[in-house]
Design brief:
Blueprint lengths: L2 H15 L4 H11 L2 H15 L4 H6 L7 H13 L2 H38 L4 H4 L3 H23 L1 H4 L5 H11 L4 H22 L4 H11 L3 H15 L4 H4 L8 H13 L2 H49 L5
Helix pairs in contact: 1-2, 1-3, 1-6, 2-3, 5-6, 5-11, 6-16, 11-12, 11-16, 12-13, 15-16
C-alpha cells in the first residue's frame, strides 16, 4: 500500500466516523492534503460526483487498488458500514506492514554478508590490473540479484493479473521448495479472511464468492473458489463447498464445519484465515533466521577457496 493511498483511506475513515459525508470528506482531503494525497482525493471526488461508488472510483485510480480492498469497500458501502470496513482494512494493512518490516530487517544482514562475500575476496584482481575480470564476477552475482529485487518490487507491472506471464510466474513460484507452500498458504489465508469479512458485511455466498475468486492471489486458488460457488449454487452447504479448496488444515476444516452448523461461518473464516497467515509468516521468519548462517558459510567458503588458491600458487605450496 502506497503512503498516499494509505493516508487517503485513513483520512476518509476518520472523517466518516466524525459524521462527515463521503463527498465532503474527499473535498476536505483535497483541500487540506498535499501532493499525491490531494490529487487522489480530487480524482475520487470527481468520479463520485459523476455517480460512481467509492469502490468504482478507487478502481479507476492510477495506482491500482488491491482487489480485496475493492471488494470489501463495495460490500461496506452496500451495508452502510463503510467507516468500519475502512478501519478493518487499515488495521489489517498495519499488521501486514509490520510483518514486512520485520522480514526486511532480518533479510538486510544476510544480504549484506553475501554482498561483502563477493565484493572483498576478489579485490586482488583489481590490484593485479584485472579489473574487467573483477567486474564480470560482480555482474554475475549482482545482476541476477538486482533483477530478482526488481521482479519482487514491480511484480504487478511485470506480471499483470490474468496475463500469461503471471501464470508462468505463479507456476514457477509454486514449485520452489518451501516458498511455494508458503505462497499458497498466504494467498489462501487472505481469501478466507476476505470471504468471512464479506459475509460479515451482509453479502451472501452468491455475491461474495465471485469477489473472492477475482481477488485471489493465485490463479489456481481463484478457480477453486469458482468451483465452490458452483457447488453452493447447486445446493451444497458452505462446508461442503469448501472441500474443493485445497490446503486448508484438518483442524481448520473442523472449525469451519462447526461454524457452518452454528451460523458463525463468517467469524470462523476470519479466524481461520488469520491463524493460517500467522503460521505462514512464522515459518517464513524461521527460514529468514537461517539465512545468516548460510551467508556466513558462503563467505567462509569463498575466503577459504581464495586462501587455498593463493597458497597453492606460492613456491613450495600445495
Amino acid at each position: 500500500m502506497s503512503s498516499a493511498y494509505y493516508e487517503l483511506l485513513k483520512g476518509i475513515e476518520t472523517r466518516l466516523k466524525a459524521g462527515i459525508p463521503l463527498r465532503d470528506a474527499l473535498e476536505g482531503l483535497e483541500t487540506d492534503g498535499r501532493g499525491s494525497l490531494a490529487a487522489l482525493a480530487g480524482g475520487l471526488r470527481s468520479r463520485i460526483e459523476s455517480g460512481a461508488t467509492l469502490a468504482q472510483a478507487l478502481g479507476d485510480l492510477p495506482a491500482s487498488t488491491p482487489p480485496a480492498h475493492a471488494a470489501l469497500i463495495d460490500a461496506g458501502e452496500s451495508s452502510g458500514r463503510l467507516d468500519e470496513t475502512l478501519a478493518d482494512i487499515i488495521a489489517e494493512e498495519n499488521i501486514l506492514a509490520d510483518a514486512r518490516r520485520r522480514l526486511q530487517l532480518r533479510l538486510a544482514y544476510p544480504l549484506l554478508i553475501c554482498c561483502l562475500a563477493f565484493l572483498l575476496p576478489f579485490l586482488y584482481l583489481v590490484f593485479q590490473g584485472r579489473t574487467r575480470e573483477y567486474l564480470l564476477i560482480q555482474a554475475c552475482f549482482f545482476g541476477p540479484l538486482g533483477a530478482l529485487l526488481l521482479l519482487v518490487l514491480f511484480r504487478h507491472r511485470f506480471f499483470p493479473r490474468g496475463s500469461s506471464q503471471r501464470l508462468l510466474f505463479e507456476r514457477t513460484v509454486l514449485v520452489v521448495p518451501l516458498f511455494g507452500r508458503l505462497a499458497q498458504e498466504y494467498a489462501l489465508a487472505g481469501s478466507l479472511q476476505l470471504l468471512g469479512r464479506l459475509l460479515q458485511a451482509g453479502l451472501g455466498y452468491a455475491d461474495g464468492l465471485p469477489l473472492v475468486s477475482a481477488a485471489a492471489g493465485l490463479h489456481r486458488l481463484s478457480l477453486q473458489f469458482k468451483e465452490m460457488a458452483a457447488r453452493i449454487a447447486d445446493g451444497a452447504s458452505a462446508s461442503e463447498g469448501l472441500s474443493c479448496i485445497k490446503g486448508i488444515p484438518l483442524e481448520l476444516r473442523s472449525r469451519l464445519a462447526s461454524g457452518d452448523v452454528s451460523g458463525t461461518m463468517d467469524q470462523a473464516l476470519v479466524k481461520s484465515g488469520t491463524e493460517l497467515r500467522e503460521a505462514a509468516l512464522a515459518r517464513l521468519e524461521t527460514v529468514v533466521k537461517v539465512l545468516p548462517i548460510l551467508a556466513y558459510l558462503l563467505a567462509a567458503g569463498l575466503v577459504l577457496w581464495r586462501a587455498v588458491s593463493v597458497f597453492s600458487a606460492l613456491p613450495g605450496g600445495f
